[in-house]
């Protein structure tokens, strides 16, 4: 049995890699293809039966999946879109759970209302994996992608807390105010735990000068945040997301470049395997679920029809909810347009109030920073508003996935219609993935939604590089600049570093000038050619065995770092 499981796992990883490679070329999201492959594989004669325990998904797979997503969501974007994210991930999930639960309560006579609401909580939280993978590939506006990712991060917590309360209510052990209190406790305690774990882990990792050790710690962080929160009765999901957001925000300040590169690659790999693995398993378990429903004496067709009904209800509720939400966001955009001129005037008055020959005080700097942040928020809301096309995409992107799979199987064994309820939940997940996920690219193209302006992004990048380069140049102009040993730098050294410092800004400005490669782009192209020759020479030296392996490894790392730097430069300048 162990060898069978190991072989299945290895085959599963290979299937995930192959599908992830070819799915974008076919214009579909990988989770959709994996679910279909899983369903097909489960009906192969002689295929072994396999059911992944829901505890493994909730406690082993879910925390790293959420953490890997959270560390890549800029906390500034999360804050600016908090209204939309909280509305979709809290209010919409609650409304969806109660509406679908009440309808199932009416349709299934032996099902109590709390148990029906538990089923509603199972099918309510959308999974953002398929939607965001499609959206990023087709160039959805960044704000729309951020809202999808934020919804996917937080709505799991709402659904799981509701599920826990609903299951407890089956035994008549909770009240309305008890549920509300439990929800507030679960959220606020989890935020506190996640904040503490995030800050402590960042501090510990910043003291280690080893990328392997810091990445190893990062693998433990989601579980360190999740398990204690769950043991205290709080939401482990919220704790993990909080820790991930804090870690991602603090990484630029406290981690080395190599730490960030290593962590990004390792977590992207873990996320690829875990997320897509769950979708593959979801499809593979369908055969077993269908057999259980048939054995229970309940029509499989009826269960599937109820799943289709739930899918339709969830879609209607989502669309109805999104209409007023987007109306509120449009109103917020109009207020931002009105406030922007007043903020500009306040900044001008603050600047005029400080004498030019007096060093700014900390209080003045704090006030300026606060106004600048507020101004940036208003500019963001004004320039990146979400119109009706974005509302249509968001309304159609409510695909279900990982949480629906795990939460459905966590329903108590004594729950009436349990096999049917699990199949209903799986039907919702698979239908939304295949139908909504499969047609989402068509909807995006039909609506003509455009993503961020590449030219505007390059222009903004050039301004940012110029700004940070100005600070570096000012440091070189400081007459008190000394070496670590206290001696002054040689003037020729300062001049050479000044050239290196300004070269990046010049390259960014050059990229805005037209389609003809400028001197800096030609230099990078030539440098890549030189790197290829140097790498060939390195391989030749390794084959001759003249140099030690540790020296060869360091030389390889130097070439890799230079090649990575050039590739990042091309990402910023070659889009035109």
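-> sequence recovered:
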């Amino acid at each position: 049995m162990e060898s069978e499981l190991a072989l299945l796992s290895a085959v599963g990883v290979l299937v995930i890699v192959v599908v992830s490679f070819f799915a974008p070329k076919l214009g579909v999201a990988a989770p959709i293809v994996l679910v279909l492959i899983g369903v097909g594989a489960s009906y192969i004669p002689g295929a072994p039966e396999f059911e992944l325990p829901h505890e493994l998904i909730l406690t082993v797979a879910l925390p790293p999946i959420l953490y890997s997503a959270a560390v890549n969501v800029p906390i500034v974007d999360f804050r600016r879109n908090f209204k939309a994210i909280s509305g979709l991930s809290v209010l919409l999930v609650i409304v969806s759970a109660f509406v679908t639960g009440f309808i199932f309560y009416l349709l299934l006579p032996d099902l109590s209302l709390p148990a029906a609401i538990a089923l509603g909580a199972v099918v309510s939280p959308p999974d953002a994996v398929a939607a965001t993978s499609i959206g990023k590939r087709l160039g959805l506006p960044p704000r729309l992608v951020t809202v999808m990712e934020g919804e996917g991060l937080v709505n799991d917590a709402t659904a799981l807390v509701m599920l826990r309360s609903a299951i407890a209510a089956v035994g008549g052990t909770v009240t309305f105010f008890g549920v509300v209190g439990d929800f507030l406790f679960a959220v606020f305690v989890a935020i506190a735990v996640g904040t503490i774990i995030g800050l402590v882990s960042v501090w510990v990792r910043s003291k280690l000068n080893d990328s392997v050790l810091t990445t190893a710690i990062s693998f433990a962080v989601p579980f360190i945040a999740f398990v204690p929160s769950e043991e205290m009765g709080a939401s482990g999901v919220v704790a993990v997301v909080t820790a991930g957001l804090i870690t991602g925000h603090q990484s630029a300040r406290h981690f080395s470049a190599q730490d960030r590169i290593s962590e990004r690659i390792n977590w992207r790999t873990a996320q690829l395997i875990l997320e897509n693995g769950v979708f593959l398993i979801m499809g593979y378990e369908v055969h077993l679920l269908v057999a259980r429903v048939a054995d229970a004496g309940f029509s499989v067709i009826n269960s599937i029809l109820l799943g289709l009904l739930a899918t339709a209800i969830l879609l209607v509720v989502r669309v109805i909810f999104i209409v007023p939400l987007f109306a509120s966001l449009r109103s917020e955009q109009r207020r931002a347009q009105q406030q922007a001129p007043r903020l500009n005037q306040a900044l001008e008055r603050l600047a005029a109030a400080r004498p030019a020959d007096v060093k700014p005080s900390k209080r003045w700097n704090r006030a300026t920073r606060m106004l600048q942040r507020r101004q940036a928020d208003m500019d963001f809301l004004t320039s990146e508003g979400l119109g009706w096309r974005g509302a249509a995409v968001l309304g159609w992107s409510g695909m279900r996935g990982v949480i629906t799979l795990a939460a459905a199987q966590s329903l108590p064994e004594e729950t009436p219609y349990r096999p049917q309820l699990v199949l209903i939940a799986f039907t919702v997940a698979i239908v939304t993935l295949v139908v909504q996920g499969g047609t989402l690219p068509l909807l995006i193209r039909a609506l003509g939604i455009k993503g961020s302006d590449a030219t505007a992004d390059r222009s903004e990048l050039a301004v940012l590089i110029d700004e940070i380069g100005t600070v570096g140049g000012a440091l070189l102009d400081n007459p008190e600049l000394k070496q670590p040993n206290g001696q002054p730098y040689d003037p020729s050294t300062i001049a050479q570093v000044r050239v290196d410092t300004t070269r990046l800004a010049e390259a960014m400005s050059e990229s805005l000038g037209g389609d003809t490669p400028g001197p800096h782009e030609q230099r990078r192209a030539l440098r890549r050619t030189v790197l290829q020759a140097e790498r060939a020479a390195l391989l030749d030296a390794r084959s001759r065995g003249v140099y030690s392996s540790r020296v060869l490894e360091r030389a390889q790392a130097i070439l890799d770092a230079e090649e990575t730097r050039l590739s990042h430069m091309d990402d910023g300048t070659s889009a035109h």
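The chain has 22 helices and no strands.
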